Amino acid sequence: MSSDRAGGQPGPGGQPWRGGQPGLGEQPGPGGQGASREGAPALKIDRLSVRYGHITAVASVSLELPAGAIVAVLGANGAGKSSTLGAVAGSVKAHVSGDVRLFGERVGGRPSHRIVARGMVLVPEGRRVIAPLSVEENLLLGAYRQRSHKQVRAKLGEVHELFPVLRERRGSPAGLLSGGEQQMLAFGRALMADPRVILMDEPSMGLAPAMVDRVIDAVRAINALGKSVLLVEQNAVAALRVASYAYVLDRGRIASSGSAQTMRSDPVVAEVFLGLHESASRASAEQGPGRSEAARS
Ligand SMILES: Nc1ncnc2c1ncn2[C@@H]1O[C@H](COP(=O)(O)OP(=O)(O)OP(=O)(O)O)[C@@H](O)[C@H]1O
Ligand SMILES: [Mg+2]
Questions:
Q1: Where are the beta strands (DSSP E) in the chain?
Q2: SS3 203
Q3: How far is the CA of 36 from the centre of ligand 1 (A)?
Q4: Residue 94 resides in a domain
Q5: Counting C-beta atoms within 10 Å of the first and last residue's C-beta, which end of the chain has fewer, N or C?
Q6: CA 77 to centroid of ligand 1, rounded, Å
Q7: pLDDT tens digits along 68-119
Q8: How far apart are the first and last CA of the chain?
């Protein structure tokens, strides 16, 4: 299988994307509900591996997002969450192998703009809004798939309806928005591309608890528009409120998976996030108060 990323060259390791094996093997998976017209899951990742030189960030990860579902990928710092999403979205600069299918269509190895054109968009970690540009200009950056001015205005209207604050602040520089508002803007920019599948990288990161609740409500509202959502989070409690199924990523591997209900009491979740909690407590004790981004939200 040839790769068309980086102008037809395979990844830095010299090895192109390899087609994966069919099925998730022994993993039960979250499937069963909400199959698409084609009957295929919205997203199916099979044996995905991501390497940066000698560092293996993701090792043979397989997971499935049924059409119409919200599925969470939980993991602590450095677990490989962003590498997984970046590889799926075609935006990571690394050696990648495995099979990625969007509604049954093989998209692994394609560059990000082609993947967006097929209907899958990444909402990146840290929001990445363009601070000096206005809220509306940021939204329009996501609209390059829309062919006519009329289509763009229609999409903008839909986004404003979902997030009225983006209409109210349309002329403000995006950098003046709070962290939570910037997350709404990042969601809105993704919706402007009219995706079927949205990959969200830690949308709750750095936000105060009340704003985390609003972000989770926004994820639910986006899903209610018919978008399938793969939600990457360190905030397991928040993610398990909205997802139907979850996978735990630990040091690049799937350590556990199951329905959201079972994962709330899963020992692996407790272990991974107890560790996270302890290291976070240690870090804040070392750094002192006032380091949290929450103050900005
Ligand atoms: N560009 C890179 N070059 C080398 N190593 C990298 C690069 N990006 C990530 N890594 C390494 O890959 C591993 C997984 O990183 P990744 O960013 O995917 O984790 P993550 O789960 O998203 O973490 P976080 O919660 O901090 O965002 C880590 O060990 C990280 O140091
Ligand atoms: Mg990350």
A1: 43-52, 55-65, 70-74, 95-102, 105-106, 120-123, 197-201, 228-233, 245-250, 253-259
A2: coil
A3: 32
A4: no
A5: N
A6: 8
A7: 999 999 999 999 999 999 999 999 999 999 999 999 999 998 999 999 999 9
A8: 45
| pLDDT surpasses 70 at 18 | no
Nearest listed ligand to the Cα of residue 61: 1
C-alpha 144/C-alpha 173 separation (Å) is 20
Residue type, 252: G
Q: Does residue 182 lie within any of the structural domains?
A: yes
Query: What is the domain range of residue 265?
Result: 66-79+111-296
Amino acid identity for residue 56 in this structure: T
Answer whether residue 164 is part of any domain: yes
* Ligand 1 centroid, distance to 222 Cα (angstroms): 27
- Helix residue ranges, H only, 163-266: 164-168, 179-191, 209-224, 236-242, 260-263
- By alpha-carbon position, which residue is closest to atom 24 of ligand 1? 77
CA atoms within 13 A on the CB side of 68: 9
What is the residue with the minimal CA distance to atom 7 of ligand 1? 52
Q: Report if pTM > 0.85.
A: no
In a domain, 54, yes or no: no
- Number of structural domains (the chain) is 1
Residue 60 dihedral angles phi and psi, to the nearest 5° = 55, 55
Q: Return the CATH number at 73.
A: 3.40.50.300
